[in-house]
Amino acid sequence: MTAYDSSSAFSRNILAVGIRQELTRLGFGIIDLPGTKETVFAKPSTRLAGVEIRVFSTIEGSAVRASGDDSIKVCAVYTGGDRPRGLFKERRVFRTGQLEEIPGRVRDRIKLTAAELAGVETCDCGAPKGTSKAGKKYCMALCWTR
């Protein structure tokens, strides 16, 4: 086991390779999101149309960012409407500990996201229901506005 060292270019490259391999093995592909410098991976939900799981990987180029202030993020996003809307997010994956364990923690967050997607309510129109800031459920496709 090798400890991750954010100040080491070699360590950052090895972590980037490990994350890419794990996400590719899980069926994720790279998507282009305007305004993001990092590599973002996404995979469509098999249960809900227009929903995808996204992983904000902290990979820039061939290595993860050197800064230890950020983390890997996993979330579910509804992309079926006029603009993407966040459905929910999981706890962050901090890039600390053993190099070999970090991609596994990303995989665990993805599994939690998939499990949570299995319990998402859907509207009559088929779109998922999100939770507003006030705690009320609403259709992510905003079908009541049409």
What do you see in this structure?
By secondary structure, the chain is of the alpha+beta class. Helices cover 23% and strands 24% of the residues. It has one domain (9-121). The protein has helices at residues 9-25, 102-118, and strands at 29-31, 40-44, 51-56, 59-60, 63-64, 73-78, 85-89, 129-131, 137-139. A hairpin with a 6-residue loop joins β2 and β3. The mean pLDDT is 91.
- Extended strand count: 9
Number of domains: 1
Could you estimate the helical fraction of the residues in percent? 10-25%
User: What strand order characterises the main sheet?
Assistant: 1-2-3-6-7
Ends apart, CA distance between termini: 56 Å
Q: What structural class results from the helix and strand content? A: alpha+beta
Order of helices and strands: HEEEEEEEHEE
Shape: elongated
Largest sheet geometry: 5 strands, antiparallel
Mean pLDDT across every amino acid position: 91
Brief description of this entry?
The chain has 146 residues and is α+β, with helices and mostly antiparallel strands.
Q: What descriptors fit this protein?
A:
single chain; alpha+beta; two-stranded antiparallel sheet; 9 strands; about 25% helix
